[in-house]
Amino acid sequence: MPRGKKASLTAAVSQELRSNFDLGKFKEKKMLNSNVKFKDQQWIPLSKAFQDVTSIPGIPQGHIVLLRGHSDTGKTTALIEAAVAAQKRKILPVFIITEMKWSWEHAQQMGLELETQVDEETGEILNYSGQFIYVDRETINSIEDVSAFILDLLNEQKKGDLPYDLLFLWDSIGSVPCEMSIKSNKNNNEWNAGAMSTQFGNNVNQRITLSRKESSPYTNTLVCINKVWTAKPESPMGKPKLMNKGGYAMWFDSTFVVTFGNIMNAGTSKIKAIKDGKQVEFAKRTNLQIDKNHINGVTTRGKIVMTPHGFINDDDKEIKQYKSDHAQAWAKVLGGTDFDIISEDQEVQDISHFEKEPE
Description:
Elements: H1 3-19, H2 23-29, E1 43-45, H3 48-54, E2 58-60, E3 64-69, H4 75-88, E4 92-97, H5 104-109, E5 115-118, E6 125-129, E7 133-136, H6 143-159, E8 166-173, H7 179-184, H8 189-210, E9 221-226, E10 228-231, E11 241-244, H9 249-253, E12 256-260, E13 269-275, E14 278-293, E15 301-307, E16 310-313, H10 316-334, E17 340-345
Parallel strand pairs: 3-9, 3-12, 4-7, 4-8, 8-9
Antiparallel strand pairs: 1-2, 5-6, 10-11, 12-14, 13-14, 13-17, 14-15, 15-16
């Protein structure tokens, strides 16, 4: 049979089969006609200042979110703002603190609801409790430990023993090695990156994002602070790069990335209250940029002021209002409330210096 006639016959048979085929019944038979819808996107709102600078409501529920940057640039402020907002919406914050720079006093100052257990004789605070879950390096020592802890809570939630939407808050990626690094007593970045890819990219992150499906009774969110380092340009005309410690598994899986500070350094400037030679640093100005946004596509950059109570806009009026609201707190140090406010740029790091890739 000539090739053209054979092709025509095949097309005719295919057309006949399709005309008598019920795709709906096929999908029903294979159970492929359900679980296709996603929930409407909800947000855990951050402060008005964050929203003003970024044009973003806050933290998107059901997603992987990275807050990255050098030290002391506002990452923890954003993380605590998210936890405070979550509590107000009956979402359970789950703190995974492996960086060990955590301060309950700071969290409470920003509005986190908690209770303290106090020694009646000494007045010493013995414990903190409240509508949250907290773990740290006392029980979490490796990337695998972090993954196992998250998966355990997700399993408890699935069984009905933890009836909350969960907001996992990990501070931070890059602060714990993988088990292979621990056993060899060598913090190998390639091994750590491989563990992040296996434990999170192939497992935890999938569980988080699947909670956006309409078939899931709960919506879970993972917010990670990501430690960074600065790499030398690949060519004389190139630019230095901000690199994520722990590899890029979380970067690839994240739908939302916020970068704080500059590439070479923190790039913050101190805002101080000064009176008669005495001074109190009460805020810092920092850069903030939405580097990745696969939710609504908005990417912005601007400056914001971080304070012990959260973010405020980089605006003279708001800074003066903040001074007025909290002046009494610094009056004992400065000897009064009629102090001046100045901004002081931090020393700029020499751009000829670059960090080495973590070993």
